[in-house]
């Protein structure tokens, strides 16, 4: 089992992105997916940080892929998607329409925002050239095991959401702009004020969701710390660690120690609490996605 | 004339819709294969065959929604639903999952395939992919698009488009939302339910009524005031900015429903083939009333006459309606 750093879901400055990627070069991560996932309006502000990051990560021996947007609607977004396939790197598709731009015979990765719920879908994607699939975060362990078995037969590596606020929904509407009484087209990039998203609580003060532009996330940080053994047994070969502010190197090191059996899942979970925004973990190992097996 | 596609949660609602002028009715089997898997709703295999015969006698079509994502290890349940829909004489099936579409194209090539809104095909590339790979003939567009975007999509595709015009409003891209799963463990994609009643609890402190979903408070209303159903994305929440200034309100969407009646002429000009009414969970009286009003509207549209002012407004949830994403300012 190894670690994949997913694309940053939030809107960070080019400087913050550059220093984040620089920190990944000597981290235990096996691969990194980068690029803009959530909102194409953000990209001009930090896209110049992508080529040097790719170069440095490749030089450090990491596998690197570029993500598509999660929701592609505009003409320029379709063009952007098509252009991704000309960059000479694997593309991780997070909107199925990207497959329409895939050059014949080209392999690709499938991100967690593509609906892969069953063997039929996984096989269809594998036969189109999928080599890696990060499964949707809402899948229960029983489904993960069935899919991992099917994936093995197709030569596809299976990854799951290992750490980070869970992407729960994507919309045409920008909730960050709405919170500032603005529309999406006049958002003034207010999502940049909240580098881990903006928290949404219930009127009774329960910590609940986090908005990030057009995206809605869980407010708890999903962590598979306590599920590593079960996931390994199910045939999962990689955990996706999603970028956040704070000591990301310590988070990656903790997961690396855990999958190498140098640190127990319970100890990792305890170590993570002060390192994550909001200090609350979930792993869906109960009746709901918000559940946490650690009590 | 634009085709009017109407909901039927029960055989009685189907008959009511057909008699009120539906050109087509959509419905599903009583299990997790369809995205309105609510207790007391949906069709047995026998019901379905009878419903198709009834509709066909009156010149209406029946579209069978098999639009959840098959559970890993349990695909035969969904494959059987496809075979049974064909056997019952369905005019089309409405599908969302890639694996199921591939199975349908291979094993039921003569059964017309529509792409469910749950597939969230939001641009021409996605639609053309589904058309080429699986022979999809019609796509139900997700509710994230403006009318202008719908017109642009229609210029680049060869399949028919169908859009929602009335009823419940998803504010997230459908088929890509696991909010309900996070709060309750039950999701539209996996279980065919959103914010299920089984996970709703009300508490009454004498002054206010509090509605919780999976333990999370969705809204609190003064006693005696109308209390909308606690659908997660229509809840009242609170959010503070970095400086600690908090706002409380409907952060995602107000408890409104969709009413795009006034946009029918624009949607027709945008090349939309069919108009869809949401509400398989609704009573047959509601269905009959809405269908009658919309049939009059599409007939007026086809005849180039002004749309009749209808009594639809009082049928909408919480008495408030929106044109949703069809208007750019909604975003």
Largest interface: A-B, 72 and 71 residues
* Total domain count of chain A: 1
Reading the helices and strands of chain B in chain order gives EHEHEHEHEHEHEHHEEEEEEHEHE
CATH superfamily of chain A: Aldolase class I
Distance between the termini of chain A: 26 Å
State the helicity of chain B in percent bands: 25-40%
CATH architecture assignment name of chain A: Alpha-Beta Barrel
Radius of gyration of chain B: 20 Å
Major sheet size, sense and barrel closure of chain A: 8 strands, parallel, barrel
The percent range for helix content of chain A is 25-40%
Which shape of chain A, going by the Cα principal axes? globular
Query: What's the β-strand tally of chain B?
Result: 15
Radius of gyration of chain A: 18 Å
Number of contiguous helices of chain A = 10
Q: How much β-strand is present in the residues of chain A? A: 15-25%
- Number of helical runs of chain B? 10
Q: Looking at the structure, what is the overall shape of chain B? A: globular
Major beta sheet of chain B, specifics?
Answer: 8 strands, parallel, barrel
Protein name (chain A): Ubiquinone biosynthesis protein UbiV
Pfam family, one (chain A): Peptidase_U32
Keywords (chain A): 4Fe-4S, Iron, Iron-sulfur, Metal-binding, Ubiquinone biosynthesis
Function (chain A): Required for O(2)-independent ubiquinone (coenzyme Q) biosynthesis. Together with UbiU, is essential for the C6-hydroxylation reaction in the oxygen-independent ubiquinone biosynthesis pathway.
């Amino acid at each position: 089992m190894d670690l994949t750093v997913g694309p940053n879901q939030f809107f960070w400055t080019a400087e913050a992105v550059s220093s984040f990627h620089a920190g990944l070069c000597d981290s235990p991560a096996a691969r990194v997916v980068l690029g803009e996932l959530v909102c194409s309006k953000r990209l001009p502000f930090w896209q110049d940080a992508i080529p040097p990051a790719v170069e440095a990560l490749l030089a450090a021996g990491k596998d690197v892929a570029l993500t598509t947007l999660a929701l592609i609607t505009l003409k320029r977004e379709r063009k952007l998607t098509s252009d991704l396939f000309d960059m000479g790197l694997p593309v991780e598709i997070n909107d199925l329409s990207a497959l329409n731009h895939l050059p014949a015979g080209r392999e690709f990765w499938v991100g967690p925002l593509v609906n892969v719920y069953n063997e039929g879908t996984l096989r269809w994607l594998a036969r189109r050239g999928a080599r890696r699939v990060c499964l949707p975060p809402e899948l229960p362990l029983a489904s993960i095991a069935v899919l991992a078995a099917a994936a093995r037969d197709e030569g596809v590596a299976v990854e799951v959401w290992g750490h980070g606020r869970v992407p729960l929904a994507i919309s045409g509407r920008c909730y960050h702009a709405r919170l500032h009484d603005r529309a999406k087209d006049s958002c003034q990039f207010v999502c940049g004020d909240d580098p881990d998203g903006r928290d949404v609580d219930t009127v009774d003060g329960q910590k609940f969701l986090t908005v990030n532009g057009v995206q809605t996330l869980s407010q708890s940080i999903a962590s598979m710390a306590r599920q590593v053994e079960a996931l390994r047994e199910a045939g999962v070969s990689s955990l996706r660690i999603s970028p956040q502010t704070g000591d990301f190197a310590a988070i990656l090191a903790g997961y690396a120690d855990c999958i190498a059996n140098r640190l127990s899942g319970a100890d990792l979970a305890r170590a993570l609490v002060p390192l994550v925004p909001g200090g609350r973990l979930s792993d869906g190992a109960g009746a709901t996605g918000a559940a946490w097996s650690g009590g | 004339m634009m085709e009017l596609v109407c909901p039927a949660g029960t055989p009685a609602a189907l008959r009511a819709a057909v008699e009120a002028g539906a050109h087509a009715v959509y419905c599903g089997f009583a299990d997790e294969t369809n995205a309105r898997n609510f207790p007391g709703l949906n069709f047995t295999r026998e019901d379905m065959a009878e419903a198709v015969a009834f509709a066909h006698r009156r010149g209406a079509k029946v579209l069978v929604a098999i639009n959840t994502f098959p559970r890993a290890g349990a695909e035969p349940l969904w494959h059987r639903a496809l075979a049974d829909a064909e056997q019952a004489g369905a005019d089309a099936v409405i599908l969302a999952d890639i694996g199921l579409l591939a199975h349908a194209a291979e094993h039921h090539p003569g059964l017309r395939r529509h792409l469910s809104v749950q597939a969230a095909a939001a641009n021409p590339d996605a639609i053309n992919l589904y058309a080429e790979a699986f022979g999809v003939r019609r796509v139900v567009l997700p509710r994230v698009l403006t009318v202008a975007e719908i017109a642009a999509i229609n210029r680049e595709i060869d399949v028919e488009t169908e859009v929602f015009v009335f009823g419940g409003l998803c504010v997230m891209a459908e088929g890509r939302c696991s909010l309900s799963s996070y709060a309750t463990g039950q999701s539209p994609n996996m279980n065919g339910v959103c914010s299920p009643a089984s996970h709703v609890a009300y508490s009454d402190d004498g002054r206010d009524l509090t509605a919780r979903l999976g333990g999370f408070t969705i809204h609190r209303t003064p006693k005696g005031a109308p209390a909308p159903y606690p659908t997660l994305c229509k809840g009242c929440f609170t959010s503070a900015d970095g400086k600690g200034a908090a706002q409380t309100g409907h952060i995602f969407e107000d408890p409104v429903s969709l009413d795009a009646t006034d946009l029918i002429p624009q949607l027709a000009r945008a090349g939309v083939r069919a108009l869809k009414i949401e509400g398989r969970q609704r009573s047959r009286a509601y269905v009959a009333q809405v269908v009658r009003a919309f049939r009059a509207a599409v007939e007026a549209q086809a005849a180039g006459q002004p749309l009749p002012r209808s009594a639809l407004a009082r049928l909408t949830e919480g008495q408030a309606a929106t044109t949703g994403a069809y208007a750019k300012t909604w975003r």
